[in-house]
Amino acid sequence: MHPVPRRAPTSEAEAFGALVEEHQVAVYNLCYRMLGDPDQAEDAAQETFLRGFRSRHGLDPARPARTWLLSIAAHHCIDVLRRRARLAWLPLEDRPLPEPGPGPEESLERSEADSDLQRRLRRLGPEERAVIALRYWQNLSVEEIATVTSSSANAVRTRLYRARRTLAAADLAPQPPTVREMHGEPRAV
């Protein structure tokens, strides 16, 4: 059976919709790693695509659209983090219950690992968090990160070095006990 060929987009909106579909996971993941909250990451991803659509005429066809969108996302998340640092607030609504999924033990392990990772990432400044997320979750090269963050390659290398050093220091700091450790089980390595 032959695959059905995709119909060419007939409008700019359709073409941009295809771009969103292709890059939405990468943009959301970057926003989540930078902001540490799924709801804020979703809002930031939507804002990224809205800003991208508004400035779609600035997209250089000779350059990858992924890098352009990640650049918009990274800059937006840095702005959000800077505003967050100035305004400490608490959500007024209760969080909804999670969807049924893996068992309680597996969920607990994932939750502890993710919260530990987010705790470590919160130790980083917005620029360092951006380069770490772009390097290790988006697998971008130093040169691509420089393009996304509007920095030089040397500045990216410096931020990566400082971020790694900060994250390594977090490994050496005393860690709060996990739920398993509180029940007498050893810490997983």
Provide a quick synopsis of the model:
By secondary structure, the protein is mainly alpha-helical. It has 8 helices and no strands.
Low-confidence stretches: none
**Main sheet characteristics:** none
Topology pattern, helix = H, strand = E:
HHHHHHHH
Number of helices: 8
What's the shape? globular
- Give the DSSP E fraction (strand runs of 2 or more residues): under 5%
- How many β strands by DSSP? 0
Overall pLDDT level:
79
Rg is: 19 Å
For this structure, what is the CATH class?
Mainly Alpha
Please state the second-level CATH architecture.
Up-down Bundle
What is the count of structural domains? 1
Distance between the termini: 48 Å
Q: What oligomeric state is this?
A: single chain
What is the assigned CATH homologous superfamily?
PhyR, sigma-like (SL) domain
Structural class: mainly alpha
CATH topology: Butyryl-CoA Dehydrogenase, subunit A, domain 3
Share of residues in helices = 55-70%
Structure description:
This protein is mostly helical and 189 residues long. It has one domain: Up-down Bundle (Butyryl-CoA Dehydrogenase, subunit A, domain 3), CATH 1.20.140.160. It is 66% helix and 0% strand. It contains 8 helices and no strands. It has helices at 12-35, 38-54, 65-86, 104-122, 126-136, 142-149, 153-172, 179-182. Helix 1 (12-35) packs across helix 3. The longest helix has 24 residues, at 12-35. The radius of gyration is 19 Å and the shape is globular. The termini are far apart.
